[in-house]
Design a protein that fits this description.
By secondary structure, this protein is an alpha+beta fold. It folds into 4 domains: 79 residues, no CATH class; 106 residues, D-amino Acid Aminotransferase, Chain A, domain 1 (2-Layer Sandwich); 76 residues, 2-Layer Sandwich (Dna Ligase, domain 1), CATH 3.30.1490; 44 residues, no CATH class. It has 10 helices and 14 strands. A hairpin with a 4-residue loop joins strand 2 and strand 3. The chain starts with a helix and ends with a helix.
Length: 332
């Protein structure tokens, strides 16, 4: 059997990962893959002799075995937190705030911009803030000081309607990917970084990093203009981490590792059951505050990317995920 990387060869760089994986899985399981958009991979169907399913790229769900209700609840980080709290799952608390006056008559008091500033002050003027329904780490960052928060809210308001504000929590970040109750794999997350070439300053390296983020539709990293170290030239091969978001799409890395504990897997299962998901990736901090037994769920992703599995040459796990989909939807 060809590897996924070999299967990808010859596909356009813009081809969505999941359409490649779907076609790869169809070849393995004897199903018919049909591209419906001239080979772009943006819209396609998968068919058995008796049934067919359609998939679309972008924000379309790749996992039809997840109900629309469960997927929608998981996409709202505040709803997710409330549901997990009710289920007894430790989760980072957060408050939501709207960035526009639209629909103000339809929401309770206490969630406007002025309320965001008051809540930020209660958190000591430092918080981790992210779009309420964002993904891929877009605009997910620590914010320090009221002036920085106001700039942040103005920028985010161009793209999103609301944000979630949380206390800053530190720990080792892991992702547990589940198919029903089966923990398919666990991965440790590491932050993005830039690597010196002995010529460019750290500021210039960050500028190039930010250009790549913008090209991928993501918010840039705030460089901290008054940081004198930004003008230093990194030695060739010297690596500098960029703290904050660890998403692969934002330049972070993930390494497949055994779960740090059975408690990690148990909490991931509890979280997905609470939300009613059959396929999910649960992100969590382990060792919160230096306590090795302290775990906080960060969020639950109902439409997780699986590019990591291609990077680690784990086509077998990609096939297990798609087999789960095909069986759940009656194609196998």
């Amino acid at each position: 059997m060809r590897s996924v990387k070999e299967f990808r060869a010859g596909k356009p760089a813009s081809h969505p990962d999941q359409s490649i994986y779907a076609e790869f899985a169809c070849a393995e399981f004897g199903l018919t893959f049909s591209d419906l958009d001239g080979g772009s991979g943006l819209v396609f169907s998968i068919a058995s002799p008796d049934k067919s399913l359609h998939f679309g790229a972008g924000r379309c769900s790749w996992y039809p075995q997840n109900s629309a209700t469960a997927s929608t609840l998981a996409s709202d980080k505040y709803f997710t937190g409330k549901i997990l709290n009710a289920a007894g799952v430790p989760v980072i608390d957060g408050e939501y705030f709207f960035l526009h006056d639209r629909y103000r008559a339809h929401r309770p008091n206490g969630h406007e911009r002025d309320d965001a500033l008051a809540h930020f002050s209660k958190l000591g003027a430092s918080a981790f803030v992210k779009p309420l329904t964002g993904s891929r780490g877009d605009f997910a960052q620590a914010v320090h000081g009221e002036a920085a928060l106001l700039r942040y809210l103005d920028e985010v308001a161009r793209y999103y309607d609301a944000v979630l504000m949380q206390p800053i929590v530190e720990g080792i970040e892991y992702r547990v990917f589940l198919l029903d109750d089966d923990a398919l794999y666990c991965a440790r997350k590491y932050p993005p970084s830039v690597r010196g070439d002995g010529v460019r300053t750290l500021r210039e390296l960050l500028t190039a990093h930010n250009d790549a983020l913008r090209a991928g539709g993501l918010s840039p990293v705030a460089p901290g203009d008054h940081d004198a170290t930004l003008d230093a030239v990194l030695a060739k091969g010297q690596r500098r981490e960029i703290p904050g978001r660890m998403n692969l799409s934002a330049g972070g890395t993930m390494v497949i590792e055994p779960p740090p504990s059975q408690k990690t897997v148990a909490l991931a299962r509890q979280a997905t059951r609470a939300l009613g998901l059959r396929v999910a990736a649960v992100d969590m901090f382990v060792g919160v505050g230096g306590d090795p037994d302290a775990i906080d769920v960060i969020e639950v992703n109902s439409n997780p990317s699986i590019r990591l599995l291609e990077d680690f040459d784990r086509g077998d796990l990609i096939l297990r995920i798609w087999q789960h989909t095909f069986r759940a939807m009656g194609l196998l």
